[in-house]
């Protein structure tokens, strides 16, 4: 696999690398722009390594340096493409790059990832994660009613685009290997976001209305995140979830909470009233007073015992001690030169019946594999992943 990505497809190619594909990053002299994404130390950059995002997204990959601004560099790229079953590219990097790739003879999958796709009125437009999220619609659905829309944290458009691209590429590769027909996969990050908008598309299709922030303003007073002693918990105890509502009231009664009587009064049996701003404000005061002396762990334990739909809101720090993730051995400790001798990172996002997922190597230094990859190419031995899934020379 030839990797000509920087942002939208970087995780897609890493997913293939983790399964044993030989993923070769083609970088310009000085390195790809993604190496410099913050946080990045001057020492790591000087050593030809990269920042924290690069160290994660380039695990298991190889790096070769090719100057694509020169005719000789383009010839090297064409020779690399000729050895590959898959090329993943963000083509705005160099003029004519995609045309050069598509002109190389052979059967392969060429996956093109851009903010808005290769056609249409926005084709070729520059964008950022915020712009793609906004024009994809997820920003409209995020946040509180009556307040500004919110961008989801964590560069989500880049990861969503990568997930869609990886799935489409895998399907196209299977077809190419089965029928001997090549494919061009045109991935629009905007369309990937628009396709993943919770149930907004179905709501419009079935009910003829556009979803908005906060569940169209009809969310029950109990459905929100509330403060407790050491953080936040999410609660959902509307009348439609009678067991959750009854369990919450029973817990309050057992604790002798003085707000219990107010919540058993007639207004709290009126579903429409429970969605009003006044009732939401009243419930927030009561529930946060009730939870003020209770930890997230205790809330979770009581919720399980009483069938209350309530769960802790985990911080990043909490995830490392999450009992489910620890039991599944989700986190992996790997070497990341330039960042630390060993770093704990998220592991495989799935489990397969065969142990083909692995982290074999840290993110590559710039040009680390020039001699291996380019020398092998010159000798006419491109190399492919072996049937067991790990890359062979």
Automatic annotation (TrEMBL):
GO MF: CoA-transferase activity
Organism classification: Bacteria, Pseudomonadati, Pseudomonadota, Alphaproteobacteria, Hyphomicrobiales
Keyword Transferase in annotation: yes
Protein name in the entry: Benzylsuccinate CoA-transferase BbsE subunit
Domain of life of the source: Bacteria
Keywords tagged on the record: Transferase
